[in-house]
Specification:
427 residues, mainly beta, Methylamine Dehydrogenase, Chain H, 5-stranded mixed sheet, 43% strand, protein serine/threonine kinase activity, serine/threonine-protein kinase, transferase
Length: 427
């Protein structure tokens, strides 16, 4: 998430049969929050949500295999239906979502991470699917876990619905976070912050960002968003000494207080439609898009209110619409939807190298040590060396299309294609 988020590199205008809905009703919590949410118990040994523990797609631990082939497969499991969500890992269990369109079911699946054995599969929603683009899926949002429960978000029944599921496969609660009107579908993954589950849902007329109590599903706060279709996932980071919720869409880069939903700062003049996640290093936000404008930008975000051009550190014209940027030390890696990868200097925006890898890209790259793993839509995984000089280590293809990002934990790659869940490991 995006996920990986899976949409055309252009957006066609939509004419609704009726007038757009009114802006979503905002919610503000009054008084002290009394939450029954379980504590967050995940660690560096887990991959608990979209882009990993630190929200940056950086893995830790021993390096996994660099040859992507049948010989590297420790186990594989067939996945019913279709989904572009990335799997998550907690303890010895993997969880991922999928959808079977013929039966109109959206499900959560659990696997044994050591053997690939399916532990259980439960339908989270049945029926009332909504419109989506042919390049998207009905299960594109990556689930999240606090170490105790699993949280899913699906577009269904004219809204965005969140669910809490136990690790044994029991649905604990379900709540509509807000109404939703689909143009090309949904792909924004949920975030966990303290006792809250945070959800972004941009759409025509009734977009919102909301926080639900993880213990009960109660909406603690909900803030309306500017009108417009966008598909990105927000991120949480410490900026200027405080926690901030940063997200893109509707020609803006916005920061909210994750505890209250109040706007902290915003920057205008980017792209109407975004389908990826901003990256934050220190007080610098790196973002990219999109449609109709193409950009990769670095912004100093230690202010409040409206930020202007004086906050722009550098900006380049490059179309990186769906894959999220990868930032590592002095380099920013941008994998364009068209298969052209660029390495920028993180401080100046100067181009270190540019290389066409081949194919189209929707998944986001994962980094471990001095290695980058990134798959294209055809299911070919590229392994690159980090640094200001381009070096490709290998590439290899497995069965299925590649729309989900690789998860790397303890020297293993857990990678979901359109047909299988793979575990790759060194012998």
């Amino acid at each position: 998430m995006r996920h990986y988020f899976l949409f055309l590199a252009f957006v066609l205008p939509v004419t609704w049969a009726c007038s757009p809905p009114e802006p979503v009703q905002e919610v503000r919590h009054s008084g002290e929050l009394q939450s029954q949410a379980p504590p967050i118990t995940v660690s560096a040994a887990d991959w608990p949500w979209w882009r990993g523990l630190a929200h940056d797609n950086h893995a830790v631990g021993p390096n996994p295999p660099t040859e992507i082939n049948e010989q590297a497969i420790l186990w594989q499991a067939e996945i019913p239906g279709l989904g572009h969500s990335t799997p998550i890992l907690v303890g010895e269990k993997l969880f991922l979502t999928t959808a079977v369109e013929s039966a109109e079911t959206q499900s959560l699946l659990a696997f044994d991470a050591a053997t690939g054995a399916k532990l259980w599969s439960i339908p989270v929603h049945e029926g009332k699917f909504m419109n989506m683009h042919q390049k998207n899926s009905q299960a594109s949002a990556t689930p999240a876990t606090d170490g105790t429960n699993i949280y899913t978000v699906f577009m269904v029944n004219d809204g965005i619905w969140a669910s809490a599921v136990s690790q044994e496969g029991k649905i604990l609660w379900q709540k509509q976070a807000g109404p939703f009107r689909s143009q090309h579908g949904y792909g924004s993954s949920p975030l966990i912050h303290e006792s809250l589950l945070i959800i972004q849902a941009d759409c025509d007329g009734s977009g919102f960002v909301a926080a639900l109590d993880r213990g009960s599903g109660e909406i603690i706060w909900r803030t309306s968003r500017p009108q417009g279709n966008s598909y990105g996932t927000p991120t949480i980071a410490q900026i200027a000494g405080r926690a901030q919720l940063v997200l893109c869409g509707q020609d803006r880069l916005d920061s909210y207080d994750p505890n209250t939903g109040e706007l902290i700062w915003y920057f205008e003049g980017l792209a109407d439609t975004i389908a990826n996640t901003p990256q934050v290093v220190g007080d610098t936000v790196y973002a990219s898009g999109g449609y109709p404008d193409h950009f990769v930008i670095a912004i100093r975000a230690d202010g409040t209110g409206q930020l202007d051009q004086s906050h722009v550190i550098w900006q380049e014209r490059k179309k990186v619409y769906v894959p999220s940027l990868l930032v590592d030390r002095d380099c920013v890696y941008a994998f364009g939807d068209d298969g052209v990868a660029v390495c920028y200097d993180a401080e100046t925006g100067d181009e270190h190298w540019k290389k066409r890898l081949g194919g189209d890209f929707s998944a986001s790259a994962t980094l471990i040590g001095d290695l980058i793993y990134v798959p294209n839509e055809a299911g070919e995984m590229f392994v690159l060396k980090t640094g200001p000089k381009f070096e490709q280590v290998s590439s290899g293809k497995l069965t299925g299309a590649g729309f989900a990002s690789p998860v790397i934990v303890d020297g293993r790659i857990y990678w979901r294609t359109s047909t299988h869940l793979y575990c790759l490991a060194g012998r």
